[in-house]
Amino acid sequence: MKTKLFLSAIAFAAIFGAILAQPAAAQDATINIVVKNKKFDPSTINVPADKLFKLVVKNADAVAMEIESRNPRFEKIIAPGATATINMKPLKAGTYSFYDDFNKSNKGEIVAK
Prior knowledge:
Immunoglobulin-like, 5-stranded mixed beta sheet, 1 helix, 9 strands
C-alpha cells in the first residue's frame, strides 16, 4: 500500500512538474527599448510573427514620454527614469510603426517576420 502511494506521488509530481515547466519553455519574447536623448534605442525591433511578445521600455530621459501606436493599438506614458512593460498580442508578418506622442519626431518600427 505504501509503495503504491509513493509511486502515485512520484507520478503526480512528474506530471505536475511537466505542466509547470511547459510555460517556461513557451515564454514570450521580451524586447528591450531605451529612450535616451529623446530617441528610441533600438528604433527598429524584430519580433517573430504570430507570437506573443513583451516590449519593456525604459525612459532614461529627464522628461516623461508616451510610446504609442495606432496599429497595433497601444499607448503608455512613462515617467522619467521609469520602466514599463507592454504585453503585445501576436502580429501578422509586416512592419508596424510606433512613436513618442510627446515628441513626434521620435519614431520606431516593429518588424514581424
